[in-house]
Design brief:
Length: about 180
């Protein structure tokens, strides 16, 4: 049905308003998306803008499958564009150019599963137990124990990881979004 709707939209070359609760339909059929939360506009933008730069936790959790990981963190300091935060029992300093007004010390680190990478050496940011490994063919989802909520990592389908393994991961800090809601 999505293919037929996309073809129809292309043939008519007309403005269309399409209402859906299916984020895949919204992402694939839209030039622009309006995300509503309890009847109010939460964010308006192009599909990849919503995916890469969500304004809030609602949009970040709604757009993407699996959803963005939300990891509690603590703000420590900021010096120009370098920020120091603590999460997953470690301190990290990285360049963060997005505007954020630190209303409180508590933050939420938002990071998509494809922006966490398994590494097989000691050059890692964090390690944890893989308590679920979903092999889906072209990709594998690894669910890591963070003692709060699982941290999901998306890998190639042929990665040799199994349930119970201790996994070393690196975070792509360029793709982290900090929420201070």
């Amino acid at each position: 049905m999505r293919v037929e709707l996309a073809k129809l939209h292309e043939q008519l070359d007309a403005t269309m308003i399409y209402v859906t609760h299916d984020q895949t339909e919204a992402m694939t059929l839209s030039d622009e998306i309006v995300v509503l939360d309890e009847g109010k506009i939460s964010q308006l933008g192009k599909p990849l803008e919503l995916y890469n730069k969500p304004n809030n936790l609602f949009v970040a959790g709604f757009i993407g499958s699996p959803k963005m990981n939300f990891i509690p963190a603590k703000f420590i300091s900021k010096n120009k564009n370098d920020i120091e935060i603590e999460f997953l029992n470690s301190k990290f300093i990285f360049n963060y150019e997005n505007d954020i007004n630190f209303k409180k010390e508590e933050l939420i680190v938002g990071i998509r599963p494809e922006n966490i990478h398994v590494c097989f050496d000691n050059n890692h940011h964090w390690r944890s137990n893989a308590f679920v490994v979903e092999k889906l063919g072209s990709s594998t989802f690894i669910y890591l124990d963070s003692q709060i909520e699982p941290v999901v990592v998306e890998c190639d389908g042929d990665i040799s990881v199994k349930t119970g393994d201790i996994i070393n991961v690196k975070f792509n800090f360029e793709k982290i979004i900090l929420f201070n809601e």
